[in-house]
Write a structure and sequence with these properties.
Number of domains: 2
Number of helices: 13
Strand content: 15-25%
Order of helices and strands: HEHEHEHHEEHEHEHEHEEHHEHH
CATH topology of the largest domain: D-Maltodextrin-Binding Protein, domain 2
CATH class of the largest domain: Alpha Beta
Low-confidence stretches: 1-26
Radius of gyration: 23 Å
CATH superfamily of the largest domain: Bordetella uptake gene, domain 1
Largest sheet: 6 strands, mixed
CATH architecture of the largest domain: 3-Layer(aba) Sandwich
């Protein structure tokens, strides 16, 4: 009898030990709201995109998505929060390719691609260089001519240090042989406000971040960094038209999470986001705010980043020879 009870006890102990494993995968995920960390300030393009997606999540996931801004620190605090979250699928983050393709080469960051689960790519960035409406610079050529004649006198913004726009502005200086000072901001929205307030002479940002000011005429775009003109702003020339095609660099937005999210939950999140990207109402609203919707699978996002690193590494080494990455070589 004692032997029988011993076997029963051991069997029950095994079942209890396995219970948490079964519960992680067998419950009705998601059974509570999803937290979406945004490493940028409210009101910028990343925040706008995140909140637009969040508004459609109940329809396709059956749960709300709560946007949590963790801005500042060149996006490092928010990005680390994404990487260090519990890998249960209830905390994700919206981020940009520059987090892995550019920032690690300019800043000493405590993360790698391997710290994240890449869920889906959702948006390709359209980028413009713009000035305030009363700026004396009417064309891109006017601006560059003035910078060349007054080295070090003008300043510009491009969001946070280590951002895609930061690199693009530095690359522009390097390519054209001009000297304009980069002044970091806490995000894209503060950058736009600094241009409007006269603290910045010009800025390089994605269209979505400055869509309101572009539509009202509060700012004037001088050039866009695409191969073709932006449909909403047909009078703005492309950097390719001006003879600098090498300054056209891809930049994509994606949803990520911490490493180790169960594959079945990643699929549920991916499928919900993909259905949102195909929703006619979402596409209409996205177009209205300047989103350039572009789907990529999580694996495609990872591969794009790896390819981009190969392309940008020699460029970054030339522009930022004193960067942490360059010093390690």
């Amino acid at each position: 009898m004692k032997e029988i009870f011993t076997k029963i006890f051991i069997a029950l102990a095994c079942v209890m030990a396995l219970a948490p494993v079964f519960s992680v995968h067998a419950d009705d995920y998601p059974s509570k709201p999803i937290v979406n960390i945004v490493a940028w300030a409210p009101g910028g393009s990343t925040d706008i995109s995140a909140r637009l997606f969040a508004s459609f999540m109940p329809k396709y996931l059956g749960q709300a998505m709560v946007t949590e801004n963790q801005a500042g620190g060149a996006t490092l605090p928010g990005t680390l929060a994404m990487a260090r979250a519990r890998p249960d699928g209830y905390t994700v983050g919206v981020n940009w390719a520059a987090t892995w393709t550019i920032r690690p080469f300019i800043l000493d960051v405590p993360y790698t691609m391997d710290d994240f689960t890449f869920i889906i790519g959702i948006h390709d960035q359209e980028t413009v260089l713009f000035v305030r409406k009363d700026s004396p610079f009417k064309t891109f050529e006017d601006l560059i001519k003035h910078i060349k004649a007054n080295p070090g006198k003008l300043n510009y913004g491009g969001g946070v240090t280590g951002s895609f726009q930061h690199l693009l502005g530095a690359f522009l200086n390097f390519r054209l042989g001009v000297d304009a000072e980069y002044i970091s901001q806490d995000g894209n929205r503060p950058t736009t406000i600094a241009v409007l307030g006269g603290q910045l002479d010009y800025a390089i940002l994605d269209v979505l971040s400055v869509a309101g000011e572009l539509k009202t005429g509060a700012v004037r775009p001088l050039v866009c960094f695409q191969k073709e003109r932006i449909k909403e702003y047909p009078d703005t020339p492309t950097i390719k038209e001006l003879g600098y095609e090498e300054l056209i660099l891809p930049q994509s937005m994606m949803m990520v999470g911490p490493k180790g999210i169960p594959a079945d939950r990643v699929k549920i999140l991916h499928d919900a986001f993909k259905r949102i990207l195909e929703d006619p109402e979402f596409l209409k609203l996205g177009t209205n705010v300047g989103m350039n919707v572009s789907y990529r699978s999580g694996e495609e996002c990872r591969q794009d980043i790896a390819n981009m690193i190969k392309v940008l590494t020699p460029v970054i080494d030339r522009i930022f020879p004193d960067s942490p990455a360059s010093k390690k070589k």
